[in-house]
């Protein structure tokens, strides 16, 4: 058990340090910004992920919170835990300060590590899955730290660049179609190893023969869509999508503008020219669906995506989250866990679509083939693009 303990403590330190490294380039004033209700301030992410360990690891073991009054500030959505500040008002939490939140993090880190260091074998076995969940949760918030500060900086007329530790996007290869026979395939997370509850249970799905593109849709293809009047051509769009385009006067992906023949996109690292084989980013589901239709294809289902990710797509680094056509719904036999942690995923299984893959802002090692990300269809402040799919048989 000693090795497991040391590994767990080391992983805890690594993940917690990465959050602080992501926040380090941001001054306290930056960390206060909330661009919209769906995006949270950096310092709130730093505090909420800490509250998560206090609430679900330390408190059940009799460790009192650092500051009991802060629970209402840093509870996100857990009804069973108690009241909370409305999501859209997190930017109004001027206090505690960013420095105080830094100290809060250090105190909780000391307590968690002390607990792990002193746990006997049985206690450690019970703690390990909770620590893994807390760290996976923190990694989800690490991606949000990036997307949420980009949302804030995008509103700043001087366009400040976020320069946190993010790996550059790998180049995409040439476009080709991977053909898959399908049949009865198994998706979902295996019983061993960490996975979120929404990746269970593992189950069988019947897939007709299909093809998936080896790469994500590029800015050159988006260019063709825009040149063809794609944003204004009703036949490419879902009804809700067309309503959304018209209501918000959408004529380009989020944070993107065309300047002459060039696409300029604001993202992590500031505004820059994109092109060539780089994937389109900051797309809503509605846009992804319309662009796929324009290109004579469709979005993959999440089962098609996962089956390919366990085969020919295995090991491809996530460049952008890929919208699928699958509604975010419980797998057959899914049951949310008991208690407050049962609220983690299950209660959000309506009115959202599944995204697969991972982006340049996704922490290393965070995703796996069964990983399900999910957002409402009009979301486009995430690093979201699309991969094309098509049927290999004419279905009647
Ligand atoms: Fe959270």
Could you describe the 3D structure shown?
- The structure is a single chain.
- This protein is an alpha+beta fold and 396 residues long.
- The chain is built from 10 helices and 12 strands.
- The protein has helices at residues 2-23, 28-31, 42-58, 71-74, 98-118, 121-153, 219-227, 239-248, 285-294, 302-309; strands at 177-180, 183-187, 203-207, 210-216, 256-259, 262-267, 270-274, 321-327, 353-356, 373-375, 384-385, 387-391.
- The strands form 4 sheets. The protein has a 4-stranded mixed beta sheet.
- A hairpin with a 2-residue loop joins β5 and β6.
- The longest helix has 33 residues, at 121-153.
- The protein is globular.
- The termini are far apart.
- 39% of the residues are buried.
- The mean pLDDT is 95.
- Fe (ii) ion binds next to α6.
Please bin the fraction of helical residues.
25-40%
Low-pLDDT segments: none
Identify the bound ligands.
fe (ii) ion
Average pLDDT confidence is 95
